[in-house]
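Sequence in, structure out. Go.
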Amino acid sequence: MQPAIAQIVLSATGAQTINNSTVIQSLWSGYGQIIRLELSGGAHTSVILKHIQLPDSGDHPRGWNTGLSHQRKIRSYQIEAHWYQHYASHCTSDCAVPVCLAVDSSANETVLVLTDLDAAGFDVRKDSVGIQDIHACLDWLAGFHATFLNSNAEGLWECGTYWHLDTRPDELAALSDYALQKAALLIDQKLQQCRYQTLVHGDAKLANFCFQPANSIRDSVLADKLPRVAAVDFQYVGRGCGMKDVAYFIGSCLNEEECEAMESHLLDYYFSALTSQIAQKKISVNTAELEDEWRELYPVAWADFYRFIKGWSPGHWKINSYSEKLTKRVIEGLGLQQP
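Output:
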């Protein structure tokens, strides 16, 4: 490890030494690494180092190596650093996130020192989930959306999510679905012009949620008050309709048959959790109006992501009959006809 980075870690944590380092994963397109550091002599036995090193151009796994893609990634890491410095402290146990201990940036390098969620008890990662796991993630999203309802998103993406239309002209141009291509701007406008806005995580897929072990929750007398999950990766956090996160999350962990069969139940669960969170936080808002507006925008949010995925990766597993049906309904609702 570079001595300068080691010193940043030691200063931020009060630790005496860094005993060991383990690479957890490389960042998308080779833009750096996420590393767990084991420490001694301070308050933290381990921390997470997110070390972003910006190359001249990325090695994108699907071939999207454009100047626009590179600039989008650079901006995303700047926004993530800003998020941790200015917004993360507002997150309570209802939407747990790592605590930022230090941020250090230079022209082509950024270092984030974060608390280790594994050490905080969120040490389980899942690639398949049951209904209780899905509920836990929807609880997190409800807590997050309630916490930042009506936020001005200063310093963050003006329009959150990594698939936002204005940042994806290449993928739109590559889209062979003419009706969806024609409807893309209207879909985007419908989401951006909705009355009730919040901060959206922007990449709320299953892989970005960290779970507590089931037995630690079941055995606790405070089980109903403990957070079940924490979330990471805030590169694309910004202003938006909460349905963007909800639709994207559901699509990340269920197949098309499950998405269709469970749609009503999962939306009911999310809005119940959201209403409860808004009441607990004493936020002055008409929850019935919010729910009515956002429920209508659920298929719109789905179609918005579907526009991106069909242009970005035409053979992707998320391209399916359920998504086609929702998107067709949205296009027809906009007064446009399928060819």
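Check: Residues 57-64, 218-223 have pLDDT under 50 and may be disordered. The longest helix spans residues 287-312.
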